[in-house]
Write a structure and sequence with these properties.
Helix content is 65%, strand content 0%. The protein is built from 8 helices and no strands. Helix 4 packs parallel to helix 6.
Length: 198
Amino acid sequence: MDKKFKITINSPVVIGMVTVCFVVMLIDYITRGKAVEYVFMTFRAPISSPMTWIRSITHVFGHSGWEHLIGNMSYILLIGPLLEEKYGSKVMIEVILITAVITSILNGLLFPNVGLCGASGVVFAFILMSSFTGFKEGEIPLTFIMVAVFFLGQQVYEGLVVEDNIANSAHIIGGIVGGICGYILNKKSPGDDQTESL
């Protein structure tokens, strides 16, 4: 008898994030850019406003266009499921939220006149986090050093030299957050439950 194949939800947080980003892009397309501008973009605003705190999280779901969206979602779909399988869904949600809030706060402090939207910070958090998967106590993985040099080095260079309207600071901050999270999660001994929490 032939075995039937079925589609499984192997990475609920990653699939959920990609779905939300896609729906937000559709809404933004229908509203001609107003949705991202008002709800899914973070910028310096009064901390007393509830929308400031909402945007500090929702900005990772908004994107400036389809190319921006597809680029970020491709990386998230490639790297995210491996991380979610290793660390669990709860940790993935925490990493996304921490990255979103930290990039929002630092963007508001360092670049008050620049709006920020997109999951690029989360992408770089995932990239640096993934380089720690083979980490052992007292060692620094060579892959982490190489990823940091290539990816973060490129962002520093482009941030200083290239004028392309890309928030390189979010990439760098996201990478730092991912590196720290990867280090903390993998510093635990092999017997520890790594799916609990950061």
